[in-house]
Amino acid sequence: MPKEIIFPEKNSFVLGSYDDAPLQPDEIRGPTVATLISQGTELGWADGDAFPIRPGYAAIFRVEEIGPEVTGIRKGDLRFCMGYHRQTQQHPAIYTLPVPEGMAPERALLARLMGVSMTTLMTTRARPGDKVVICGAGPVGILAAHNFAIGGYEVSVVEPDPLRREQVQKSGIAAVHSAMPLDDPDYQGKVALVVDCSGHEAAVLDGCKIVRKMGEVVLVGVPWRQYANLSAHEVLNAVFFNFVSLRSGWEWEIPVRSRDFVWEELLEGYNNAPHDSFGGFERALKWLNAGHVNTEGLVTTVRPDDPSTVYARIRSREIAEPFIAYDWESL
């Protein structure tokens, strides 16, 4: 039987067995090559209360079986999907994307993390050429910085950890600060958008203090726990007197797939959305394939046969690289 990673209870990580479901006419299936670990999210799930959890964020798999309604996909193709940490992937074809020819699976996985902040790029009022500050240079923050840099914004990153500052600079982002440059006249009142990828209250407050009038502070990082002893009044004061637009950066603000209005399909629902999540993933794959993000030395792979050790190493920050992928071909 194929294997998958399961969180059966709080802070417990095991490799269990499962059965593949019958293949549906619109689905494709095949062995997993690699899956991406979303470190903060998965540790947040492990610290939660709802179990069991089958974690996973993104997967690359090789197509072996194709449903009769699927067209344009061949056996042997590598496909990107939002999949569990498991030995096989099975998804409706519409919820998969082709991996560009020659791209390493571990690199292609990063398109999923780029998608987290891609929604903010699609919805912000800031325009190319504006100053954008990213708070936090973890996996999501590094790629958020590149999303906006590729989009033509003047991007800076704030990160207190020296290793992470070094990593984001190595990836190609030059302007990096150890703290929010509140007293720098080049920044104070001139930042159009702060994207918080840290989930830290103090970073959000600093963002509200530095943005220009009517500027945006978008919360992309999940506030898994309290980090600072700040009052709500401090944030409210900064938001009110600086005319700040403080909002969620929930990536699912846009639909997973756009669907046009069709009269005959009216009751099945439609959104007429100009942007969707998979459009963002597709864009990210193109940018990664074009070499816009330098990931050399920033990606590592681990075996999935001992997940307890993997997550313990992540929690203790023994793994230096920001991007970690399970290598399912190593089983």
Characterization of the model:
With 331 residues, this protein is α/β, with parallel strands linked by helices. It has two domains: 3-99 and 297-330, Quinone Oxidoreductase, Chain A, domain 1 (Alpha-Beta Complex); 123-252, Rossmann fold (3-Layer(aba) Sandwich). 27% of the residues lie in helices and 24% in strands. It contains nine helices and 16 strands. It has helices at 39-46, 105-108, 110-123, 139-150, 162-170, 201-210, 232-241, 277-289, 307-315; strands spanning 3-6, 14-17, 27-37, 58-62, 65-66, 78-81, 88-92, 96-98, 131-135, 154-158, 176-177, 191-196, 211-219, 245-248, 299-302, 323-327. Strands 3, 4, 5, 6, 7, 8, 15 and 16 form an eight-stranded mixed sheet that branches. α6 runs parallel beside α7. The longest helix is centred in the middle third of the chain and has 14 residues, at 110-123. It is globular and about 60 Å long. The model has no long low-confidence stretch (mean pLDDT 96).
